[in-house]
Backbone:
């Protein structure tokens, strides 16, 4: 399977996040929270001033002020995006995946904005990734094509496990923005539950078997 042809949305988002990180390194933002805030992190004081674009830009930035923490944050999100994003895009289509990614990512940013102190800051793609995870679970459950597929149902169980595990971990580690994770997750579940799921298309003519054997009348 040619991933570049079947998952263009995932590929573009992956590259955009990498480019965002390169810009952080060039500007020194990956180890400097002040510069990272200036680049586009969610800072409630700035959002209150009308800088709503931060709810979007923060999705393409990563960092916690340390080299190790920033690299771990980035690598984990890129890995999750590559695995889960590709899977969702292949199963449900590029347009649906991209809409869900951005809508749940903005919802996660909004949840983070409401939780943060006035001059606190938050960045990362994990809220959108949680959104895709939540959408995946409900999309499979409601899909005429995938809801009875054993592999898809197995992946749903894994997603549910990782949802719970990550929320519990986030509750015990203050540095993790659990509000963003939960906000993205809830938004993804709602979209997965509400968006229509058309019936699978009929098989192409080349795959249809037609009985042309002569009949005795």
Residues:
């Amino acid at each position: 399977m040619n991933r570049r042809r079947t998952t263009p949305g995932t590929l573009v988002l992956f590259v955009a996040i990498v480019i965002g990180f390169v810009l952080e390194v060039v500007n020194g933002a990956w180890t400097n929270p002040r510069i990272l805030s200036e680049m586009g992190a969610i800072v409630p004081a700035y959002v209150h001033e009308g800088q709503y674009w931060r709810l979007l830009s923060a999705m393409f930035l990563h960092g916690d002020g340390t080299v190790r923490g920033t690299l771990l944050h980035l690598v984990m999100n890129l890995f999750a995006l590559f695995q889960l994003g590709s899977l969702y895009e292949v199963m449900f289509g590029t347009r649906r995946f991209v809409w869900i990614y951005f809508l749940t990512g903005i919802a996660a940013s909004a949840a983070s904005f409401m939780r943060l102190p006035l001059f606190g800051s938050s960045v990362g793609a994990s809220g959108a990734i949680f959104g895709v995870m939540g959408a995946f679970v409900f999309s499979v459950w409601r899909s005429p094509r995938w809801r009875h597929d054993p592999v898809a149902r197995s992946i749903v169980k894994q997603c549910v496990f990782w949802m719970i595990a990550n929320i519990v971990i986030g509750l015990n580690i203050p540095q993790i923005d659990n509000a963003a994770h939960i906000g993205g997750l809830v938004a993804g579940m709602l979209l997965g539950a509400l968006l229509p799921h058309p019936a699978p298309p009929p098989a192409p003519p080349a795959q249809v078997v037609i009985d042309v054997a002569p009949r005795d009348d």
Remarks:
- The radius of gyration is 20 Å.
- The chain is about 65% helix and 0% strand.
- Residues 67-92 form the longest helix (26 residues).
- The domain at 6-197 is CATH 1.20.1540.10 (Rhomboid-like fold).
